[in-house]
Amino acid sequence: MSEPTRTTAADPAAVAARLRAAGSVFAEEEAALLLAEGGDLEPLLARRIAGEPLEAVVGWAAFCGLRIAVEPQVFVPRRRTELLAREAAAALPVGGTVVDLCCGTGAVAVAIAALAAPGELLALDVEPAAVACARRNLEPLGGTVLLGDLFAPLPARLEGRVDVLAVNAPYVPTAGIATMPPEARDHEPHVALDGGPDGLTVHRRVAEEAPRWLAPGGTVLIETSDEQAEATAALLAAAGLVVTIRHDEEIDGTVALGRREGAR
Asked: Are 91 and 143 part of one and the same domain?
C-alpha cells in the first residue's frame, strides 16, 4: 500500500476511502476494525496503509471463533488453517498430548484447547518473536512454548507419547514468495513462508521424524496446499504412516494426516 491524499480520519467513510485508495480490497471492514480499537486512529491507519497486516496493527486475529493475540513480524494465522485445528482436535483422545509445530502465534494449539481436552499442550517455533507471542496466547491455558528448530526442543520423555502433532510448516515454494501479497512477504518472517524449491523441504523433515514422537494410534497433521497434498501425503506414507487427505472448499484448507498404527 502507498499513502493516498490524507483526509480527516474520524469518519468511517473517510477512513475506508483512504484504505481503498491505498489498495485495500476490504476497506469498509478494515475501517470498522481500526475505528473499534479507539484511541489515536492515525498511527494505526498509517501502519495499515504502509502495508502492515491488519491483524498485527490491531493486535489480534479471529481464528476458530477465538481472538488470538498477534504481534508485528509474526506469521498471521489464516482462516484456512482452521481445518488443521479442527481435524487435530477431532483426532485427540481425552487427556492426550498435543504438539503444535511451527506454531507462530500458537493459534492452532489455542483452538485445539478450546475444541478438545488435551492433557499436555506444547508449541514450538524457531522464531523468538513467534515464541514470545505464542506464550501470551498459550501460557494462560497451561500450555508450554519452546524455542528451537522443529522437534529439537521437545523433551526426550515425549518420544512415542505424542497423540496429536499439528504442523503448519512453511510450504510456499521459494520462487513463489515474490508473488505473495506485500503484507506477507514484507512483514512476516520468510522462515515461516519459505518451503524450499518445491515447497516441501520442511514437510520432508517432519515426515521423517514424526513417527519417532507419535504414540501408537497417534496422528500427525500437516497443512498443505491442494496442489501439494498428494506429495505431502506420499511423504507421510513413506514414513510408514496410514494416510488421509482432508479438504474444506469453503475456507480453501487442505490437511494431510498420517496415523501411526497401533492401539492407544
From this structure: yes
**Residue pLDDT, tens place only, 8-45:** 446 888 888 888 888 777 888 888 888 888 778 888 88
Q: Which domain holds residue 30?
A: 12-51
Residue written as cell 476490504? 26
pLDDT digits (tens, 9 = 90+) for 205-231: 999 999 999 999 999 999 999 999 999
Strands 144-147 and 66-69 turn out to be unpaired
249: how many CB neighbours lie within 10 A of its CB?
Answer: 8
Indicate the helix (H) or strand (E) that contains 216: strand 214-224
Sign of the alpha-carbon dihedral angle for 220, 211, 228, 107: positive
The Cα–Cα gap between 54 and 11 comes to 19
Number of structural domains (the chain) is 2
Place of cell 521437545: 154
